[in-house]
Amino acid sequence: MSQNVSRLHESLANRFAARGDWRRAYQHLRSALALDPLTGIYNRRHLDVWLLDAADDFAVALVDLDHFKHVNDTFGHLTGDRVLRDVAGLLAAGLPAGGFCARYGGEEFALVLPGAIDAVRTAELARRRVAAHSRVTVSVGVALPGTDPLSRADGLLYAAKGAGRNTVAYADGDTVRFTTGSH
C-alpha cells in the first residue's frame, strides 16, 4: 500500500507537470521523497532535514524491533515487511501533536517528540502498544532535549537492548534508567 502512495504522488506530479502546474508537481514529488515507500511514514531523509532546521526543544526516541532477523529468517521477508508496516502504524498512532515517526533504518524507527514532558511516557506507551498488538517487541532509547539527540538516543537504545530488550532506556542526569516489559 505504501509503495502505491509513492507511485500515486509521482503519477500526480507527472500529470501536473504535463499541464504546466509546476507548483503542484513539486509538492507531490516532495511528498514522495519524504515518505518511506514500505511503511508510508516519513523516511530518514525527512528526519535529517527536520533535525537540521529544528529548535532544541524536542526529544528523540530510537525504536528497534527486537530479534527482527529471526522474523525474516523464519517467516520470510514479505511477513517481515508486514510487521514493519504494522509497527510503523502502531508507533505513529500514539504520538502527541507536533510529533512524528520516521523510518530510521532497516528495522529502526525514530520518534520525534515535542518538549521533554511525557517523552519517556510516550515511548513506554509505544513499547507496550507494539507488544500488545503484534508478535514482536521493541527496545527504545529516549534522548531528552539537548545536543546531538540521535547519538544519545542510539547509545540509550543499546543500553535498552543490553538490559534484556522490550525495554525503554533514558538518561536522568548521568544515570541511565529503564522501564521494562516482560521479556
TrEMBL record:
<dbReference type="InterPro" id="IPR000160">
    <property type="entry name" value="GGDEF_dom"/>
</dbReference>
<dbReference type="InterPro" id="IPR029787">
    <property type="entry name" value="Nucleotide_cyclase"/>
</dbReference>
<feature type="domain" description="GGDEF">
    <location>
        <begin position="56"/>
        <end position="181"/>
    </location>
</feature>
<dbReference type="GO" id="GO:0005886">
    <property type="term" value="C:plasma membrane"/>
</dbReference>
<dbReference type="GO" id="GO:1902201">
    <property type="term" value="P:negative regulation of bacterial-type flagellum-dependent cell motility"/>
</dbReference>
<feature type="repeat" description="TPR">
    <location>
        <begin position="6"/>
        <end position="39"/>
    </location>
</feature>
<dbReference type="GO" id="GO:0052621">
    <property type="term" value="F:diguanylate cyclase activity"/>
</dbReference>
<dbReference type="InterPro" id="IPR019734">
    <property type="entry name" value="TPR_rpt"/>
</dbReference>
<dbReference type="Pfam" id="PF00990">
    <property type="entry name" value="GGDEF"/>
</dbReference>
<dbReference type="InterPro" id="IPR050469">
    <property type="entry name" value="Diguanylate_Cyclase"/>
</dbReference>
<protein>
    <submittedName>
        <fullName>GGDEF domain-containing protein</fullName>
    </submittedName>
</protein>
<keyword id="KW-0802">TPR repeat</keyword>
<dbReference type="InterPro" id="IPR043128">
    <property type="entry name" value="Rev_trsase/Diguanyl_cyclase"/>
</dbReference>
<dbReference type="GO" id="GO:0043709">
    <property type="term" value="P:cell adhesion involved in single-species biofilm formation"/>
</dbReference>
